[in-house]
Amino acid sequence: MGKIKLAVVGIGNCCSSLIQGINYxxxxxxxxxxxxxxxxxxxxxxxxxxxxxxxxxxxRKVGKDLRDAVFAKPNCTKVFCPDLPKFGVEVKMxxxxxxxxPHMAEYPEDRTFAAADCESCDVAEELEDSGxxxxxxxxxxxxxxxxxxxxxxxxxxxxxxxxxxxxxIASDKSWAGKFEEKKLPLVGDDIKSQFGATIVHRTLANLxxxxxxxxxxxxxxxxxxxxxxxNMLHRERLKSKKISKTEAVQSALDTPLExxxxxxxxxxxxxxxxxxxxxxxxxxxxxxxxxxIDLELRLSVEDSPNSAGSAIDxxxxxxxxxxxxxxxxxxxxSAYTMKHPPVQYRDDIxxxxxEDFINQ
Length: 360
Hints:
Blueprint: E1 4-9, H1 13-24, E2 49-56, H2 66-69, E3 91-93, H3 123-130, E4 134-137, H4 144-157, E5 160-163, H5 173-181, E6 185-187, H6 197-210, E7 214-224, H7 227-231, H8 239-250, E8 262-269, E9 276-287, E10 291-302, H9 303-323, E11 328-329, H10 331-337, H11 347-358
Parallel strand pairs: 1-2, 1-4, 2-3, 4-5, 5-6, 6-11, 7-8
Antiparallel strand pairs: 7-9, 9-10
Helix pairs in contact: 1-9, 3-4, 6-8, 9-10, 10-11
């Protein structure tokens, strides 16, 4: 197989983990690939992903080689592959639009975004010139206009699109139709971590349902110290995020809970946590004889590598669809790797759909 030529917008922690992971697993084989959900997807291995274009708006990243940009502030994720090669890919100045929340200016520069004072590039032209196959969106939560801008740039340049944030593109009929019309594959929306709060919450909800246990009320509270959690202190930017996370759990239930009995969403920003995320989960339910039980769980994960563990599959399946001339939302991989896919399926069904698609 050839290379998967990738463009990325938003060179933050999630992008850093993805780029590190591509190189970390480039020498792996089918017997030595712990941490991957799939080593081989239709002939594409992790090392077959080649980043050819990158966009950001931070002055510590714009104009730098991608190797240096992924480790620049305010990134704070774990460095598990420090010896990255020089990529020869310069990070271009993107379009800010609504990508920076005003409240971010109140925090130390090492913790927040610092916009570069230079002219934005022509994104669609850069994408075309790079020869990219797929554009991955890692913009901050709440970047509604900016995400629409980059989605349209992907269409104009003839790229597949993997939307890792909770702005609804794949799950929006209008956007889905645009990608389908151009025969460009679309994966989204809102990346579901490899083993994170959402997948654990969904799995426990499925287990309760399968065992005849009736879930009565639940919450999921999350804290973290990266720019994602800082950005989400602005509650107006959280609307789609809260919808995405809540629907991901509600879809695992036969009868959705009333809004007052379910609370899921980011809760607070704790700087010293950096990219480590704490999930506090509580589930109250009824078993045989309507006897009450409750479950409490605390999960600690490095947030961005957890995200990259799903993104590396989403990218390869998207390329497989592109090779096959399949356009529009990809239901299986979206259900498997995203919180708010066009159609919600149980995780085991989503995985089977992905396996079936790969083996077509």
